[in-house]
Each structure stands twice: as C-alpha cells, then as structure tokens.
C-alpha cells in the first residue's frame, strides 16, 4: 500500500515538473537561448545549467522558438445570436485554441437589452467554468443604459474580475446605444478605471441601406457588405474616439476591418488620444471578395460584422500598421455558425448569423502574413499575439511573458514546419473555414497550459474544465498610465475677469427677436435703382472707372435696348475658325 502511494506521488510530481531545454526564448522585448524549468504550473527557473529536482520530464526544443502562449482578446463561444447559438462552445472552442497555440481567451458576456449585467455574467460563468480547457477572462457588453447598469458595472469591477465593457454602435434595436448613452457609459468606465470597447459601425445607416439593397433585389451575402461599406465603419470609429476623448476614457476599437478605420485609429494615437486598435485573424488573413462567390454557402460562410473588405490590399495594409504599432493587439471575433444555421438568411442577408472562425488559426495566420513575409520580427509577433493583450487587460506578467513567476502558458514553435489549413482537419466544431487551403509556415509542436502539456508532438490531449477564470483588475498601467496627468492638463479653466457693467439691450417680447430686414440694408436697398458713383464723361458716356456691381444684382445696362445680332465674316483679330 505504501509503495503504491509513493509511486502515485512520484508520478504526480513528474507530471507537475517540466524542463524545456535548448530552445530560443522569445519575449516581446528580447530573445535569448535558455532553458525553462516549470513546477506546479509556474515558471520557476530560466537560464542555462539549471539545477532541477529529479523526476522532471524534459522536452528538447533545440532549433525551436519558445514563446508565451497566445491570448485571443475577442471570442464569442456558444453566443446566443440571431435566433441560434454559436456552434463552438467553451469546450470545442478552447480545445481548438490550444491546438493552435493560444492558451487564453477573453470572451464576451453579451445579453439582450434590459437583462441585468450581473445575471448575464453569472450565466456566462456557468457556461464556461465546467467546459474550458484553457484559462479565460471576460469582457461585459453594455447593451442598454440606466442607473442600474451603472451600479452593476461597479460591482463587476470590484467583485467579479471585470475591467472592460463593450458598447455597440451597430445592431440597431438589439445591442446599439445612442451617442448620449455612449457618453454616459464612457464617463462611468473612466470613473471605474476600466477600458471602454466599441463595435464601430453606423447602425442607423446600415438599417436604411439594408432596406435599399432588398428593394433593388439584392438579398445575397454581397448585400451584407454593400449595406455597410468602409466609410460606415470609419465614421463610427471616429465618432467613438471623439466621444471617448470628451469623457477622457481610454478606448479599444474591436475588430478593425478596413484601411480607413485603421487610419482613423492611427491618426488618433498620433494626436495623443488613448486608443487601441484590434485587427483580427480574418481581416489580416483574407478579404471580402468572397461575398461575390457564386456558391451561396461559401459567400455566407464569410459573413461577419463589420464585413471583410473587398479591397484585396486590406490584409497587407492592416498587417503593416500592426507591425509598426499603429494597431496593437489581435483577436479573432471567433463566432461560428454551421451551414444550416447560415441558411437562416438564404432569402435575406440580414438574417444570416454573423460570425467566422479563427481561434485555432490566428497564430499561424499572423506568423505567415507577418513574420514569414518579413513585415515583423518574432518579438513583435509575441507582442501582438500575447504580451500587449496581457498588459492592456492587466494580467501581465502573469500572462504574456516567459519569466520566473509567470504562469507556464508556453508554445514551442517550429518556424520551419508548415501546415495547410482546412475544415477537414481543424479541431473546431464548425464545418467551414475561411482560411481553407492557406499554407502557413510556422507550426506549434508543443503547447503547455498551466504546466500541462496539451499539444504533444501533434497529439492534442485536453481536459474539459481544466481552465481557470482569470480576473482582470482595473487601472492597467498601459491603459491608465497617462490618463490622470492628461486629465489635469486638459481641465477646462475659468477666465477671471471684471464683471460687465455696460448697457444691456431690453427685449420687450421674448417671442419676437428683432432682426435686420433686407430692405433696411444700410449699404443699398434691394429695391434701389442702379446708381453711378462717378460722374459721366464730358461726352456723356459712362465713366469706365465706375463700378458696374450692385448688391441688388442689377446691371448698369439692364434698361438699355438690346442690339440686333450682327454676324461678322472677318472680325477684328481674324477668324477663330481658321487654321494657323
């Protein structure tokens, strides 16, 4: 019996101890050759010639890159939306995330107008906690506004581990807030030290343009893009930034999908505004030309909001901005619906459930389009797939870094390997993949979450419910580091002056405000006849120095008889029709 217990303890000890040897560690700010020792889900040592306890498993990582596990900032697992539920739930979604090298997701609590935010939060926790295979956090959607909502936001920040709230300028009558409600929500978020997030599209215009498309007989997926063009996204992005700036509230623009909206974010950052931009795997890896595909299922499989853009140069443009810090983080907006679910909108594009995949393929797509193409280095890759997210949502360096004391969320990456993305081989529950056929250089060969090896030389071994909820505290340094001083510097100042003691006009009747009538014009009346200001010449003709302009529009020769038309064969100066 004692031998059995001793053996069990040794096995458990060996499972909780891990040595990663010979790899190149890549953080957002530096890369270096070193070994990593992990125990009980925490990184205990980083360096060379480590002295470690016996019984540890050794993973040989020579020739590989050892990076912090990815953090997907934007997912919607089993989201109730447009009359159905997203097909990838918290189990299949997080399982797929781990297969691709992502070790944490941040999902959205997103319920209908009028529903308590606290009740919605509890609902999402109830869905996620028993199913998640990796760690997760939550944002909370604010789909309506009241004193109750403002109060519940404080509770969520103080007691529930929430530091970000998402508002919609789209989905009229479902999720959308008006500008005054948006301003009030931003003020509240600023008071709480949280981060405001916005889905930026003009919901009023989309509603009207959708009707116009249907009247023209356009009911297919192409109508989805045409009713919400780039400028509709760019306008709402600018409006959100303006309103947030007036409330001095840091802002995070989710799923930046177009060049024009990315330019708005970039310009705002250059002006000193505290704003972050999040392109997603879809906008970085493919484009909206698919909406015009002859196959309805293929076109509908790409429908999401905001839509992918038909300008095929968009993915490369967004990647350039991401590589150079005009955009900062990457998510996926992973919200998947099967072919049967998409078919709800077979006769009306407005009824196609919005959403695409990405949680499994994000890391490979960004490596392929960013690092393999030469647009960014591996350190920047780590920043945009993990570290910046950890800093913005205030879980750094617990997440997003390989360092002593950090969580053992690690991906061992082989930059020389390649794989072809396909719905036939992916781990998601959805039956379609928007990146179908894309060859990606850069493949995760080992994925470790909380010290557990879940992807082991291509074999995925996950445990349902193994993930943890990770609270995200308010007042993140990367978000609020300059807000307090910025607020003081921008504080409106009263001008001290002597009181006015002069006369004040007395208004007899408040309903009638006196104004100047046109016929009282002191310069020239409307009815005044044309008058010369210079005397005529000695011969009685008009003085050529005299102006012919009158405010009334009258011409000096209006009363002169019209001369009969005279045709001249050879006018002075010669014919205009001749050859020269």
Q: DSSP strand (E) fraction?
A: 15-25%
By DSSP, the count of extended strands is 20
Going by helix content, strand content and strand pairing, the class is alpha/beta
Main beta-sheet strand count, sense and barrel state: 7 strands, mixed
User: Largest sheet, order of strands side by side?
Assistant: 3-2-7-17-18-19-20
Number of helices: 17
Overall spatial form: elongated
What is the C-alpha radius of gyration, as a whole number of Å?
33 Å
Gap between N and C termini: 118 Å
Would you identify the regions where 5 or more consecutive residues have pLDDT less than 50?
4-14
Q: Could you tell me the mean pLDDT? A: 92
As a percent range, the share of helical residues equals 25-40%
Question: What this model shows, in words?
Answer:
Strands 3-2-7-17-18-19-20 form a 7-stranded mixed sheet. A 7-stranded parallel sheet has the order 8-11-12-13-14-15-16. It is α/β, with parallel strands linked by helices. The longest helix has 17 residues, at 230-246. The protein is elongated. The chain contains 17 helices and 20 strands. Residues 4-14 have low confidence and may be disordered. It has helices at residues 2-16, 90-99, 117-128, 147-159, 179-192, 203-215, 221-226, 230-246, 259-270, 281-285, 296-300, 314-323, 339-342, 362-371, 378-392, 477-480, 483-489; strands at 17-21, 24-26, 31-33, 35-39, 42-47, 57-60, 65-68, 70-75, 80-81, 84-85, 102-109, 135-141, 164-168, 195-199, 251-253, 275-277, 410-420, 439-449, 452-456, 459-460.
């Amino acid at each position: 019996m004692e031998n059995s217990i001793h053996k069990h303890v040794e096995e458990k000890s060996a499972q909780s101890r891990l040595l990663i040897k010979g790899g190149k560690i890549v953080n957002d700010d530096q890369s270096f050759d070193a070994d990593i020792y992990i125990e009980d889900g925490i990184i205990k040592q980083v360096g060379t010639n480590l002295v470690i306890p016996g019984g540890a498993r050794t993973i040989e990582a020579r020739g590989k890159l050892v990076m912090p596990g990815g953090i997907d900032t934007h997912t919607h697992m089993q989201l109730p939306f447009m009359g159905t539920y997203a097909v990838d739930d918290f189990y299949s979604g997080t399982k797929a995330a781990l297969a691709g090298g992502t070790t944490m997701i941040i999902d959205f609590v997103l319920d209908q107008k009028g529903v308590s935010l606290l009740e919605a939060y509890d609902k999402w926790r109830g869905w996620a906690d028993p199913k998640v295979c990796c760690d997760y956090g939550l944002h909370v959607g604010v789909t309506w506004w009241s004193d109750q909502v403002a109060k519940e936001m404080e509770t969520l920040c103080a007691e529930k581990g929430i530091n970000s709230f998402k508002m919609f300028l789209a989905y009229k009558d479902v999720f959308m807030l008006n500008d005054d409600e948006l301003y009030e929500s931003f003020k509240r978020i600023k008071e709480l030290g949280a981060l405001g997030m916005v889905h930026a599209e003009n919901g009023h215009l989309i509603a009207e343009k959708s009707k116009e498309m249907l009247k023209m007989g356009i009911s297919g997926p192409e109508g989805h893009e045409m009713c919400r063009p780039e400028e509709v996204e760019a306008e709402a992005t600018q409006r959100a930034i303006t309103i947030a700036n007036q409330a001095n509230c840091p802002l995070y623009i989710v799923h930046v999908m177009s060049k024009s909206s990315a330019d708005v974010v970039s310009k705002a950052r250059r002006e000193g505004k505290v704003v972050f931009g999040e392109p997603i795997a879809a906008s970085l890896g493919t484009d909206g030309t698919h909406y015009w595909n002859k196959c309805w299922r293929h076109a509908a499989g790409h429908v999401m909001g905001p839509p992918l853009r038909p300008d095929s140069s968009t993915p490369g443009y967004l990647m350039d901005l991401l590589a150079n810090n005009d955009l900062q983080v990457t998510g996926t907006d992973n919200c998947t619906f099967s072919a049967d679910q998409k078919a709800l909108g077979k006769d009306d594009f407005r009824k196609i459930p919005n959403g695409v995949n990405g949680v499994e393929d994000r890391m490979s797509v960004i490596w392929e389009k960013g690092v393999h193409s030469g647009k960014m280095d591996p350190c920047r890759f780590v920043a945009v797939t993990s570290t910046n997210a950890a800093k913005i949502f205030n879980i750094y360096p617990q997440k997003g870094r390989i360092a002593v004391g950090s969580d053992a969320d690690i991906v061992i990456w082989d930059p020389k390997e390649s794989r072809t993305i396909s719905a036939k081989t992916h781990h998601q529950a959805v039956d379609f993949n928007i990146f179908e056929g894309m060859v990606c250089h850069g493949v995760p060969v080992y994925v470790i979450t909380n010290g557990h090896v879940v992807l082991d030389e291509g074999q995925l071994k996950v445990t349902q419910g193994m993930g943890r909820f990770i609270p995200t505290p308010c007042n993140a340094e990367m978000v609020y580091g300059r807000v307090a001083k910025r607020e003081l510097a921008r504080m409106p100042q009263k001008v001290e002056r002597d009181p006015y003691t002069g006369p004040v006009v007395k208004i007899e009747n408040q309903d009638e405000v006196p104004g100047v009538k046109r016929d009282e014009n002191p310069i020239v009346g409307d009815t005044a006849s044309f008058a010369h200001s210079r005397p005529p010449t000695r011969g009685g003709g008009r003085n050529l120095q005299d102006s012919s302009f009158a405010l009334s529009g009258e011409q000096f020769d209006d009363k002169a008889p019209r001369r009969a038309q005279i045709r001249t064969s050879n006018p002075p100066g010669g014919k205009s029709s001749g050859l020269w």
